[in-house]
Design a protein that fits this description.
The chain is of the alpha/beta class. Helix content is 35%, strand content 26%. It contains six helices and seven strands. It has helices at residues 45-48, 54-63, 77-85, 99-111, 116-122, 131-136; strands at residues 3-8, 14-15, 24-31, 34-42, 67-72, 89-92, 97-98. It has a five-stranded mixed beta sheet with strand order 4-3-1-5-6. A two-stranded antiparallel ribbon has the order 2-7. α3 links the parallel β5 and β6 (89-92). The termini are far apart.
Length: 140
């Protein structure tokens, strides 16, 4: 099972951007101890201006919809609320945090006890999980 993690980064090497004003996100797929870059999403200056336009946040959140988390240097309260509602864990790190080191730490946590947000995204989704109960005819 793999999980996608996004990083607000201008150079694909370090986390160096605020979520709302991010010019680009580097999106990696993490599976076991393997991490690979799967997508770079870039935004224009018009898309990243920090003028309080909530619509710009929605577009970024929609882009990250299949990511378990997004790492950035800062994230506003409104963005945090919207990210969490979309099932995306916002992660604030110091400017200059190295993406490879963050991915290595996440991969290492998979061998032990991953953070709750990561563990929740690693569980296989069983579409028929209630079928057995339904077949038993259980009642409330």
């Amino acid at each position: 099972m793999s999980v996608k993690i996004a990083f607000a980064s201008s150079d694909r090497k370090i986390v160096d951007q605020h979520f709302g004003a991010a010019e680009a996100f580097a999106i990696y797929a993490l599976s076991g101890d393997d991490a690979r870059l799967v997508e770079i999403a870039e935004f224009t200056d018009h898309d990243t201006a920090m003028d309080g336009n909530e619509g710009k946040l929605a577009a970024k959140i929609a882009l990250l919809a299949d990511c378990a988390a997004v790492y950035c240097n800062a994230v506003g309260a409104s963005a945090i609320k919207q990210l969490l509602a979309a099932g995306i864990q916002p992660m604030k790190v110091e400017e200059g945090a190295v993406i490879d080191a963050l991915l290595c730490g996440l991969a290492h946590s998979l061998d032990g006890t991953p953070p709750a947000w990561l563990a929740k995204n690693l569980k296989p989704r069983d579409a028929g999980r209630f079928d057995a109960m339904d077949a038993e005819g259980w009642q409330e």
